[in-house]
Design goal:
This protein is an alpha+beta fold. Helices cover 16% and strands 42% of the residues. It is built from two helices and 15 strands. The strands form four sheets. Strands 5, 7, 8, 11, 12 and 15 form a six-stranded antiparallel sheet that branches. A five-stranded antiparallel sheet has the order 2-1-4-13-6. The longest helix has 25 residues. The chain starts with a helix and ends with a strand. The N terminus is likely disordered.
Length: 186
């Protein structure tokens, strides 16, 4: 449990450090939430507190960016780290057009691909497992004065995390949602 808390805390501190320059200059405020996705009796998704998560649980992270200025913010680029022990749930990103990264630096369209060498020596392009994704990024968007913009994605706690603990803490007040920055290349 302590190891997982440490991973989440590290992700939060990294996000905060990346977010400060943009938010201080542009007066953009991020509201961050995490909630556990469960099935309601009618079969539709329902949500509950994400204070604790167990292997297999799905956690939805959402960041709402609000421009507190009257002037527009150009090319706001939201980025969401995915901590170790969590696996991106494909197709869950909103907006749907999302880029992903294995290192938080180089971003490419989902699904990520890599070249592998087969036993016969040939190389072949293969999908990278979603468990290896470490961050998501959405293309830049303009944010109107006093306007808001939100992004979200779901992750599933992997069994890797269960080897560290049966229950892991997931912060619902400050999930591992990263910086929105102005400009930049994907």
């Amino acid at each position: 449990m302590d190891t997982y808390r440490g991973l989440v805390a590290t992700a939060i501190l990294t996000c905060a450090a990346l977010a400060v320059p943009v938010f201080a200059k542009a007066e953009v405020v991020a509201s961050l939430t995490a909630r556990k996705v469960i099935a309601a009796p009618d079969g539709k998704p329902a949500f509950q507190s994400a204070e604790k998560a167990s292997p297999g649980d799905v956690i939805e992270y959402q960041a709402v960016y609000t421009n507190q200025n009257k002037g527009a913010i150009k090319n706001l680029v939201p980025t969401m780290p995915i901590p170790a022990g969590m696996e991106y749930v494909p197709g869950s990103a909103k907006p749907a057009q999302v880029l992903a990264s294995l290192d938080g630096k180089k971003f490419e369209p989902v699904p990520l691909k890599r070249m592998v060498t087969l036993p016969n020596g040939k190389q072949e392009s293969r999908d990278v497992p979603y468990s290896e994704y470490r961050a998501l990024r959405w293309n830049g968007t303009d944010l109107a004065g006093n306007g808001s913009f939100s992004v979200s994605a779901r992750t599933r706690m992997s069994d890797v995390a269960s080897s560290r603990s049966n229950d892991a803490q997931v912060s619902s007040a400050r999930p591992p949602v990263g910086a929105a920055r102005k400009g930049g290349k994907s």
